[in-house]
Amino acid sequence: MMTRREFFRFFLMGGIFSLLSKKVKAEQPLKKAMFWRRIE
Amino acid sequence: MSKKVQCELCPNECVLENNQVSYCRARMNKNGTLYSRVYGKPCAVHVDPIEKKPFFHFLPKTTAFSIATAGCVLRCKFCQNWQISQAGPDEVDSRDLPPDSVVRNAIWYGCKSISYTYTEPTVFYEYMYDTAVIAKKYGIKNTMHTCGYMKPKPLKTLSKYMDAANVDLKSFSDDFYVRICSGRLKPVLDSLIILKQENVWLEITNLVIPTLNDNMKEIREMSRWILKNLGPDVPIHFSRFFPQYKLKNLPPTPLETLTEARKAAMEIGLRFVYVGNIRHEGENTSCYKCGKVLIERVGFFVKQNNVSKEKCRFCGTAISGVWS
Prior knowledge:
heterodimer, A: alpha+beta, 1 helix, rod-shaped, B: alpha/beta, three-stranded antiparallel beta sheet
C-alpha cells in the first residue's frame, strides 16, 4: 500500500520531469541550402 | 574573406550580406553560408483529393498528403494563399515535421502521393527534395504545384524524383508578370519545357482575372505556344478568379469568359481543357476522339471514371496521364 508521502513524492517528481521535458526540446539545426555560391 | 553569398535557386538570384534574409523570406546568409529557414517546418499540412491541386490526369480519386512552408519567390497581387506565402517562417504557425515523418504520415493516411503546394515549393526546395527522395523509396509519388520560377539546374535535379507538376502560367504577357507578380515570363516558359523534357507529368493552371489577363488574343497565343512546345495532351485549367489580397477591386471571373477561353484553347488544338473554381461541365474529362465523358467530376469529387488501362473505355483511344 502506498503511503500519502510516497504518493506526493511520486506526483511531484512527475511534475518536475514534465516541466523539464518541455524546456529541453531540441532546436533543429539549420539546413544548408543546395544551390548558392560565395561571392569573393 | 567576404561573407556575401548569391542564391542560385530561382531567377531572383538574391545577393545576400551576412545575416540578410532572401526575397522569398525562406533563406538566410549566416557567416557566409546560405541556410534554409523553413526546412522541416511546414505551416500547412493537409490530406487533399488530388483533384484539388488540380491534377485531372494523375491518379484520379486518390488523396495527396499536402505540405507547404512560409514564403514565395513572387509577389502576386491576387495570391489566394497570401497569409502564408507572403510571410516569413517567424510570422506563421509551423510545426516540426521532418521529411521521414512526412512520408510516414502519407503512408499512414493512405495517400498515394505527396504534394508540395499552397505556397511556392521552390522556397522549401531542400525539404521537398529530401522528402521526395524518401517517398520514392516507399513507392509514394511526388507532385508539386509551382509557379515554375526556378532555375534550370535545381529543376532538373528535382525532376528525377518529381512525378507530376502543375505549373501556374499566370499570363502570357511579360508585362503582367512584371506589374502584377514582380517576376518575368521567360523563366516560367523555360521551366515548362524542362519539365516536359524530363518526363514529369505536366498540367497547367491559368487563373483568368477580369481586365488583366482575360484577353482572348493572349489566351489563343498562350494555347498556340503550349501546343507547339508541350504538345496537345498537356491539360490546361482555366481557373476562376475571386477578389483576394490586393485585387479586391475586381469582380469574380464571369462564367462566359472561362467557357470562351476553354473554347479558344480547344479550337487551337489542345485536347484537355478544363475550367476550375466553378461547377461546370468543363470539369469533366472527355475523350477527344469519340467525345464521351471519361471522368465525371463535381468539384474535387470523381463520380465516374471510364479510363481503363490508360485508354478510353468506349473507343480505345489512349488518354495521356498517370493512371496507376
